[in-house]
Design brief:
Layout (H helix, E strand, L loop, with lengths): L1 E5 L3 H12 L3 E5 L11 E4 L1 H9 L3 H7 L1 E3 L1 E6 L4 E6 L10 E5 H14 L4 E2 L8 E2 L4 E3 L2 E3 L1 E4 L6 H6 L7 E13 L8 E6 L5 E8 L2 E9 L4 E2 L12 H4 L12 H6 L4 E8 L11 E3 L14 H18 L2 H24 L6 H14 L9
Helix pairs in contact: 1-4, 1-8, 2-8, 8-9, 9-10
Length: about 375
């Protein structure tokens, strides 16, 4: 069997590694001519860390990530409302890591190259053809094609034409990375809310490096007018007026203004599809199930997709992969929407209920044992 994977992101590279581990040949096609370590911080939840550990990458991941031990919910004055243990401290089998997205991608690419898996850069896939014998894309024939080409997937567009605009929550997200000292335990993620439901999430991705996300509702929910691009520049002047907070242990305006670069992005998702692929073609990661990032689960779900795909192709069919993962990721999309909708909750009891519900819905440790 030969599998073509479009996209050398986190999901695509993990899929290549997972297929190789099952003895299945894979080729990764990447549109960019050079794969550079772009992006800001992301979180890997324990279920994804378990999957990468099974691929032999546990030590490498620990070397580039910070093991988050707690989520602290607080108000804009720094008053704690609720603390939730995370990772090993929360009773999971594996840690939860906060890591720079580019470093994670580089780690996966290095592993792919070390295993001799071909990665063809400068190979943009705009569509495919398939028949009973094979699928063809970018002049290459294979048995299976996996669209792991992200939010604006060309493979998804061919499989599901006329989907229309993305669903926008009405929230604008600004993200940045700041070199500063650690706060609280040095392994704490904070979720702080202030007037107007402005929300700040901040966590370390290095000994002195803080990733932050500032979210403000600027429009009613509805179809997104325009496009969504992770690399759209933002500015501190657009963010600071909503976040003039001093939490006591974190100067929020300084955190924002000291960032070298700020990116602005609308919080978007899509409704779950009735099916992902057709015939020899399927989808993976954001191409299959874009979701709100409020649950820190997008990259983690792409990693679980990749491992599930490889397991299905080694013993069963694409249909088995799609049925299982489509149902599970639809539940995560719904849970993330509920987290966003009920994010105004302030009391410890309400926050505990929200996090408990989310933990159940996202199956945090059901793969490979809890």
């Amino acid at each position: 069997m030969r599998v073509l994977i479009t996209g050398a992101g986190i999901g695509g590279l993990t899929a290549a590694l997972s297929l190789h581990a099952m003895g299945i040949d894979a080729v990764v096609l990447e549109a960019a001519r050079e794969i550079r370590p772009l992006g800001v911080g992301i979180n890997l939840l324990p279920h994804a860390v378990g999957e990468l550990t099974a691929l032999g990458l546990g030590d490498e991941l620990a070397a580039i990530g910070i093991a988050t031990t707690e989520n602290v919910y607080c108000d804009h004055t720094g008053t704690d409302l609720f603390t939730e243990p995370r990772g090993l401290a929360g009773g999971y089998r594996w840690p939860q890591y906060s890591v720079h997205r580019g470093q994670l991608q580089r780690m996966l690419l290095t592993a792919v190259e070390a295993r001799g898996i071909p990665v063809r850069t400068g190979s943009r896939v705009t569509g495919f053809e398939q028949d009973d014998d094979c699928v063809r894309a970018a002049g290459i024939e294979a048995d299976v094609l996996v669209g792991a080409d992200g939010l604006h997937s060309a493979i998804r567009a061919q499989l599901h034409p006329g989907e229309g605009p993305l669903n926008w929550s009405g929230v604008r997200m600004c993200r940045g990375i700041t070199e500063t000292g650690p706060f609280r335990t040095g392994r704490t993620m904070i979720i702080a809310r202030g007037p107007g439901d402005a929300e700040l999430i901040a966590y370390p991705i290095g000994p002195a490096t803080i990733n932050w996300v500032a979210m403000v509702a600027v429009a009613p929910p509805g179809p997104l007018p325009g496009d969504a691009d992770w690399n759209t520049p933002g500015s501190a002047e657009d963010v600071v007026p909503y976040f003039g907070w001093d939490l006591g242990w974190l100067d929020v305006p300084r955190l924002i203004t000291d960032s070298e670069r700020i990116f602005a992005y609308p919080m978007v998702d899509r409704d779950p599809l009735p099916h992902w692929g057709h015939g020899r073609v399927t989808l993976l990661g954001d191409a299959a199930h874009p979701m709100y990032p409020v649950g820190a689960n997008g990259a983690s779900q792409a990693i679980v997709d990749a491992r599930s795909l490889a397991a299905a192709l080694s013993t069963e069919t694409l249909a088995v992969y799609e049925k299982t993962r489509r149902e599970e990721t639809a539940a995560v999309i719904a849970a993330n929407r509920e987290m966003q909708r009920t994010g105004h909750a302030r009391t410890a009891g309400e926050l505990a209920h929200i996090t408990d519900t989310y933990r159940r819905d996202t199956r945090a440790d059901t793969l490979r044992g809890a």
